[in-house]
C-alpha cells in the first residue's frame, strides 16, 4: 500500500507538533500548513524537520492560511492526503473577545473551507479522505451537566467557543450529508512544556522558573477560581489519531475525568520549588473574561471503551513536568537534589540575590 499521507493545519502549534511526531513514528508522510511570518515560528517542529532536498524527508511544509480557501484547495490537490487533521485556530479564548471576527473566520469558516475542499476532492477522485476536527470543551461553556459527555448540550460563552460549535456541527453535517469520514474530538484542556506562554498553565510554570532564576518578581493573573480538566497534550494527540483509525466515524470526549482550580495548579507549581504562590501572585483584571467558563470536567468513558484510550499523566505529574521543563529552560536543573524538588538552597539564594 501507498505510504499514508497526513495533512495537518496548525502544525506549528502545541498539538500539531506532537501529532506530527506521532505520525512520523507511525510511518506517515506528514504535510503541514504554515503561515508566512516575518520571523520563523517553527520552533516546535524544528527538531523533526528534514530538508526536502534530502531523499529521506517525510515532513513537508506548505504556506497557507485557513482564511484562504483557494490555497487550501491547491494544497489538498497537491498532497492527496489520506487523513486531514484540522488543528489550526486562533485558539486563545480571551483574545477571541478582542478579535471576534478574525477568530470566527479562522475557526468556523476555516473549518468549512477545509471541509468543502475535501468534499470536492473526494467527489472528483473517489478517494476517501478521513477528517479530524479539533473540537473543544469550551463548547460546553456554562454548566449544563457534570461531568460533560458527548450528549451534553453546548452553551458556548466566547466568540471562540461559538466558532468551535459551528465547526462541530458542520463536521457532523458533512459526515451525514456527504458520507465523509469526519470525526469531532471534544478535547478538554491539555498542556505540556510546548503550551503557548499566554495560557494559564504555562504562564504559571514559566513564571515559577523565571522567579527562581531571578528574572521575574510578580505573576499577574485573573480568575483563580475557574476549574479545568487538565491532561497531557501528548496523550491527547494519540486520541486524535485513534479516532481516524476506527471503522466508523464518530465524536469523542477526551478528558481525564478530574477537575482542579487555578489555585490548586499554583499550589503544586510553587510547592515544587518550595515557594508560596501567595508571595508572588497579584490580581490583574485585564485577564478576566467578559463571560467565564467556571467548571469543566469531562467523562472520557466512550473513548476508553471504543478507542481504548487512557490518559497516562496525573494532574500533579503534569504540573511538575511543566515546571521542570521551564526550570531547565532557564538553566536550573530541576532534580539536582534527587527528590524532584530542585536544589532549594540554590533557588533560595538566587531569589534572595535577585531581589536583595
Ligand atoms: P495553538 O494555539 O498552540 O496552535 C494553533 C495553530 O493554529 C498554530 O499552528 C497556528 O499557527 C495555527 N493558526 C492560527 N491561525 C491560523 C490561520 N488563520 N490559518 C492557519 N493556521 C492558523 O493551539 P493548540 O495546539 O493548543 O490546539 C490545537 C487545536 O485544538 C486548536 O484548534 C485549538 O482551538 C483546539 N483545542 C485545543 C485545546 C488545548 O487544550 N490545547 C483543547 C481543545 C481544543 P502559528 O504558529 O502561525 O500561530
Ligand atoms: P482556556 O485556557 O480558556 O480554558 O482555553 P486558559 O489557560 O487561557 O484559561 C484557563 C482558565 O484560567 C483562567 N485564568 C487565566 N487565563 C489566562 N490565559 N491568563 C491568565 O492570566 C489567567 N488567570 C486566570 C481563565 O480565566 C480560565 O478560566 C484553552 C485553549 O487551549 C482553548 O483553545 C481550548 O479550546 C480550551 O483550553 C479547552
Descriptive overview:
- By secondary structure, this protein is an alpha/beta fold.
- The protein folds into 2 domains: 5-193 and 232-254, 3-Layer(aba) Sandwich (Rossmann fold), CATH 3.40.50; 200-226 and 259-294 and 313-355, UDP-galactose 4-epimerase, domain 1 (Alpha-Beta Complex).
- 40% of the residues lie in helices and 14% in strands.
- The protein has 11 helices and 13 strands.
- Strands 3-2-1-4-5-6-11 form a 7-stranded parallel beta sheet, sandwiched between helices. The chain has a two-stranded parallel sheet with strand order 7-10. Strands 8-13 form a two-stranded parallel sheet.
- The longest helix has 26 residues, at 100-125.
- It is globular.
- Mean pLDDT is 95; it is low at 336-342.
- The structure holds NADPH dihydro-nicotinamide-adenine-dinucleotide phosphate and guanosine-5'-diphosphate-rhamnose.
- The site of guanosine-5'-diphosphate-rhamnose has 22 residues, from helix 3 and helix 6.
How does the SSE layout of this entry go?
Elements: E1 5-9, H1 14-25, E2 29-34, E3 59-63, H2 69-79, E4 83-86, H3 93-98, H4 100-125, E5 130-136, H5 159-178, E6 181-187, E7 190-191, H6 200-212, E8 219-221, E9 227-228, E10 231-232, H7 233-243, E11 252-254, E12 260-261, H8 262-271, E13 281-283, H9 301-306, H10 315-329, H11 344-355
Parallel strand pairs: 1-2, 1-4, 2-3, 4-5, 5-6, 6-11, 7-10, 8-13
Antiparallel strand pairs: 9-12
Guanosine-5'-diphosphate-rhamnose (GDR) binds next to helix 3 and helix 6.
Amino acid at each position: 500500500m501507498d505510504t499514508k499521507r497526513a495533512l495537518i493545519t496548525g502544525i506549528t502549534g502545541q498539538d500539531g507538533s506532537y501529532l506530527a511526531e506521532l505520525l512520523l513514528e507511525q510511518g506517515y508522510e506528514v504535510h503541514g500548513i504554515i503561515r508566512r511570518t516575518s520571523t520563523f515560528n517553527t520552533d516546535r517542529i524544528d527538531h523533526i524537520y528534514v530538508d526536502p532536498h534530502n531523499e529521506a524527508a517525510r515532513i513537508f511544509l506548505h504556506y497557507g492560511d485557513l482564511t484562504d480557501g483557494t490555497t487550501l484547495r491547491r494544497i489538498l490537490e497537491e498532497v492527496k492526503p489520506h487523513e486531514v487533521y484540522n488543528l489550526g485556530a486562533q485558539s486563545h479564548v480571551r483574545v477571541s473577545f478582542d478579535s471576534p471576527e478574525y477568530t470566527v473566520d479562522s475557526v468556523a469558516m476555516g473549518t468549512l473551507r477545509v471541509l468543502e475542499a475535501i468534499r470536492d476532492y473526494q467527489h472528483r477522485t473517489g478517494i476517501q479522505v478521513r477528517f479530524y476536527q479539533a473540537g473543544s470543551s469550551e463548547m460546553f461553556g456554562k454548566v449544563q451537566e457534570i461531568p460533560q459527555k458527548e450528549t451534553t448540550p453546548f452553551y458556548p460563552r466566547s466568540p471562540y467557543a461559538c466558532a468551535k460549535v459551528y465547526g462541530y456541527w458542520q463536521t457532523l453535517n458533512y459526515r451525514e450529508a456527504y458520507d465523509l469520514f469526519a470525526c469531532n474530538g471534544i478535547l478538554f484542556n491539555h498542556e505540556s512544556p510546548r503550551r503557548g506562554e499566554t495560557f494559564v498553565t504555562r504562564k504559571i510554570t514559566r513564571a515559577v522558573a523565571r522567579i527562581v532564576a531571578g528574572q521575574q518578581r510578580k505573576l499577574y493573573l485573573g480568575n483563580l477560581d475557574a476549574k479545568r480538566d487538565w491532561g497531557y497534550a501528548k496523550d491527547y494527540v494519540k486520541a486524535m489519531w485513534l479516532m481516524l483509525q476506527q471503522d466508523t466515524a464518530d465524536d469523542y470526549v477526551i478528558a481525564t475525568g478530574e477537575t482542579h482550580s487555578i489555585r490548586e495548579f499554583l499550589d503544586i507549581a510553587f510547592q515544587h520549588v518550595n515557594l508560596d504562590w501567595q508571595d508572588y501572585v497579584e490580581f490583574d483584571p485585564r485577564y478576566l473574561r467578559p463571560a467565564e467558563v467556571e467548571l469543566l470536567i469531562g467523562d472520557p468513558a466512550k473513548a476508553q471503551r471504543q478507542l481504548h484510550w487512557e490518559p497516562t499523566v496525573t494532574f500533579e505529574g503534569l504540573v511538575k513536568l511543566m515546571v521542570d521543563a521551564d526550570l531547565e529552560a532557564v538553566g536550573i536543573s530541576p532534580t539536582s537534589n534527587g527528590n524532584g524538588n530542585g536544589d532549594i538552597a540554590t533557588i533560595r539564594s538566587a531569589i534572595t540575590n535577585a531581589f536583595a
